[in-house]
Amino acid sequence: MTIGAVSAAASFDPTSITRPHPRLMTYYVWLSIFSLLAFPVTLLALWIRYRTMEFRFDDEGIWKRQGLLWRREVNVAYRRIQDIHLTNGILQRWLGLATVSIQTAAGSANPEVTIDGVLEAEALRDFLYTKMRGVRDGHHAAAPEHAAIAAADATGDETLALLVEIRDALTRLESRLGPGGRA
Predict the structure, then answer these.
(1) Which one of 91, 145, 164, 165 has the fewest beta carbons within 10 angstroms of its own beta carbon?
(2) pTM here?
(3) Are residues 118 and 167 in the same domain?
């Protein structure tokens, strides 16, 4: 990753992505034209898909909703992400678009979530990899004695975080009481 890519990723705000970019509709029109006789039906189906597609990236994960007659809503926590793929065909590259496909360990060959119509696909992929690996806000900050708590918080494992807190509380109590457990 170059210095320019790092600064671009640092200035990227995924919360600003709530809908696909309008260029996606241009891409859908071209796909409809290539379908020849099925043009009107294809264009209508893709227009409905474009108009109903919504995204949200928050602290917990990714949310996507689309569909008019058969509405599909998907929530994927960052810790469940297994792999991220970027795809863009020649027409998408010409329009500056890409599709980000997010795989989970759900056992399906298809991606759990696809984010279509993204201009900043590389920055979104880098953001998702950062969240997937448990790094919050680009900082690895944690003192060695608090590394387990930071790791537990980063993975979202509340049980592990609670156990670490209990261990630390018992250690503090033991140091106050002195050897043998007496004050």
Answers:
(1) 145
(2) 0.66
(3) no
